[in-house]
Amino acid sequence: MNAEIIAVGTELLLGQIVNSNASYLSKELALLGIDVFNHTVVGDNDKRMREAVKIAEERADILIFSGGLGPTQDDMTKQVLADHLGLPLAVDKATEQKVVQYHADMEREMSENNRLQAVVIEGATVLKNETGLAAGMYVEHEGKKYILLPGPPNELQPMFDNEVRPILAKLTEDSDQLVSRVLRLFGIGESQLAAQLETIIDTQTNPTIATYAEENEVSIRITAKGQDQDQCNQLIDQMEKQVRDIVGDYIYGVGSETSLAQVVRDLLVNKDYRLTAAESLTGGLFQSSLVNIPGLSLNFIGGLVSYSEGIKESVLGVSEETIEQYGVVSSECAEEMADKVKEMFDADIGISFTGYAGPKEVDGDKAGIVWIGLAVTGRETQTYYYHFGKDRNGNRKRSVLTGFDLVRRLLLELPSQKK
Could you list the residue ranges that cross the membrane (predicted)? Predict the structure, then answer.
């Protein structure tokens, strides 16, 4: 069984929004063992939508539409499809009541076009919208399956998960299952990773592995096909062990949504360490990324953004002699910054960032030069030198991720302090 995803919306063609729904749906369909061979994007145009539907019907068993179910004139997906299939439209009373009640609860006057969100193709299985108003639909007609989903991702994803997945699971219950696992890596490039895994890649059958380059990171997707999820997971476990034996130091987590900040947060909490930071070129980005992860108030007690030379001296306490002799972008300054901030906040670990973010050289030093200091109670303070590129914000992001990876590796070495 294979599917085609048809994203509807002129705003997609204009680049005003990114078609994230297609990525999400492809991943979810793959997990159900449904192949996706084509993605189509079509604007809010009756003729071109009909052409897209006809083409998709020739090459796919399942047509999944995203967008075009709202109350405005350019929301025409269900109208075009109903006419194409020769099926009438009808009002779903439960959805209509929900639309009316929503406006009453919000004390808003409801324009009549809002009732269009309750209009469905007659005979369709209505898909409940838990986070919005427009009803989704599942239609079977002359051997084809048609799934109509709303465009906003916060509506589409819950509807697919709660309403569509069970339907598709029944359709594919006699087929082999497809299960994937994503390994997240930092500190290694995709070409280097592929070279190290060349033997595995060249001999892969089932499971298969693929490498993907992302912003400042890479990932490995291991995909197995089997009779059930347990069989697939066993195959993936065996392949993951082979991969970890080769590049295990670079793997920081499992799962497409996993981040370095989350991993560091979990290690800090589970091992009971307190972290603080003194940032110069990163301007608070490290600390901001850390506090985006909930549940860290006892392990991250505060930090300092010491962007200027004067603040490094007067507030953080870096010595005037260090700055005069070595400069603010130096191993010596990074070391003092890490030591001083750890002492100031009475933390177990202090990390510092200083450097030239760019894009221009400063006093003859190239853009992208970064020093990171790492002070740990009971250990000698270490500093690390990096030279990234010329992109200012790219250098800042890369510095932050590198800092998280240094803390991650350190915490893996340190014993737990939990009593």
Answer: none
